[in-house]
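User: I'm new to structure prediction. If I give you an amino acid sequence, what do you actually give back? Let's try with this one:
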Amino acid sequence: MPDDFDKDVYPEPPRRTPVVEKQTSLPNIALILTKAWGFAVDAPVTVFREWIERQQAKRKFYYYHRVFRRVPDLTNCLEYDYPCQYEAEMQWRRDFKVDQEIIKIVQDRMKACQQREGESYMQNCRKEVELFKQTAKAYQSRYEDLGAHGGARQCLMKQKHRMMEERTRAAASTS
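Assistant: Good question. You get back a string of structure tokens that encode the predicted 3D arrangement of the chain. For your 175 residues, that looks like this:
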């Protein structure tokens, strides 16, 4: 600030922070309640939680995700073995979700490479684009026409029809 400023308009700040003097001789109820809460509730809970953490640290348990055992495919189930068919259906649904996540991860990698490389992504991201095309083609060949209520049986029938078409094409091309 310049030396010739108006002291009425711009007063100088205090040089030291003033000490707050107690106005009353009565104890502060807020401080008493805070300390009482700390000793009555917070301290026992904190001690208990620290004890639990020490007990858990002795035997560590790593939990990442639930691990399901692989169950037989629908082709291995007997005709009226409904529990086996149900397990195969649930296995198919888990595989379907895993395949969806794989597609998302590959697509995210491809998009990140496209974003990073800009206009020259076709040259620099060739591996990612090719991997995405392969995984998308495999995903579509397996799940494309199943619809919203598709299941293991429909997927198996689709695979059977696709294999029969490939055999007839191979037989027609050799004849």
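You can read the tokens as a compact description of the fold. Here is one thing that stands out. The CA atoms of residues 142 and 158 lie 8 Å apart.
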